[in-house]
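Page 42, continued from yesterday. The earlier attempt failed because a stray header line got pasted into the input along with the sequence. Redoing it now with the clean sequence only.
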Amino acid sequence: MSSGKVLLAVLAGLAAGALLGVLFAPDKGTITRKKIIKKSEDYAEGLKVKFDEFIDSINKNVEGVKAETEKVKSKADTTKKDV
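This time it went through. C-alpha cells are written below.
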C-alpha cells in the first residue's frame, strides 16, 4: 500500500473519530455545531497544506524532467553538429 493511501486512511480515521467524539459529547447543540465547524475548518486547512506540498513536489519533478530533456537535446544537437 502506498504511503499516500496510508496517510489518507489515517486522516479519514482521525476525522471520523473527531466527529464521533464531538457528536457524543454532552454539550448543547449550538456548541457542538461550532465544534464541528471548527474541526472541519482545521482539517480542510491541513488538507490544503498537504495538497500544496503535493503540487510543489510535482512541479519540482516536472522541472527536473525539463532540465534533463534540455541536457539530452543539447547533447543531441552537439553530436549532430559533429557528424
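Notes: The chain has a mean pLDDT of 83.
Reminder to self: strip header lines before submitting.
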